[in-house]
Inverse folding.
């Protein structure tokens, strides 16, 4: 009897600005997609802080620190729920969210000061620009880019169509 390894999941990259209210609204779709596909869909956060959002770059670095500490998606979701707070108060909101989730706030503060996650954020942003990302959220699945910054109407259905096609091709 041979064991077969399951096929690799389909990857859905979400280019996101953590100070963007549209990215917060996109979480509803992310939850629905995770519920439908489970581990057959790998949802990956990609950083694309927009210049117009003063604290988005620091928020992306904070999300990377949350990842290092094992609290990535809960941190991202909690921060997206507080985009208005982030816009008003900046870094204190980043630290408050970390504190609320039981993450190491001192390490967050140090990471924001020493810039240890700058390269990851910069690399994501550069890659996003190279593939034509101009706003957030933008989704990339398979070889298709879907822009949610203009309208999220019908995007989940389109992502599901692509994911279904990609998964069927693997079976």
């Amino acid at each position: 009897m041979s064991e077969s390894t399951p096929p690799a999941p389909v990857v859905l990259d979400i280019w996101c600005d953590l100070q963007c209210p549209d990215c917060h609204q996109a979480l509803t779709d992310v939850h629905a997609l995770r519920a439908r596909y489970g581990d057959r869909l790998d949802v990956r956060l990609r950083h694309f802080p927009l210049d117009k959002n003063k604290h988005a770059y620091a928020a992306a670095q904070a999300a990377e620190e949350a990842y290092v500490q094992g609290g990535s998606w809960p941190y991202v979701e909690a921060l997206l729920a507080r985009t208005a707070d982030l816009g008003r108060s900046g870094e204190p909101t980043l630290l408050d969210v970390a504190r609320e989730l039981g993450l190491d706030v001192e390490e967050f503060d140090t990471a924001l000061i020493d810039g240890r996650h700058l390269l990851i954020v910069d690399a994501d942003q550069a890659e996003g620009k190279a593939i034509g990302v101009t706003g957030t959220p933008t989704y990339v699945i398979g070889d298709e880019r879907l822009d949610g910054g203009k309208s999220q109407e019908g995007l989940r259905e389109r992502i599901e169509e692509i994911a279904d096609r990609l998964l069927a091709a693997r079976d």
User: Anything to note?
Assistant: The helical segments are 21-37, 56-68, 72-80, 83-89, 91-100, 105-114, 118-130, 155-170. The two ends are 20 Å apart (CA to CA). The longest strand covers residues 10-16. DSSP finds eight helices and four strands in the chain.
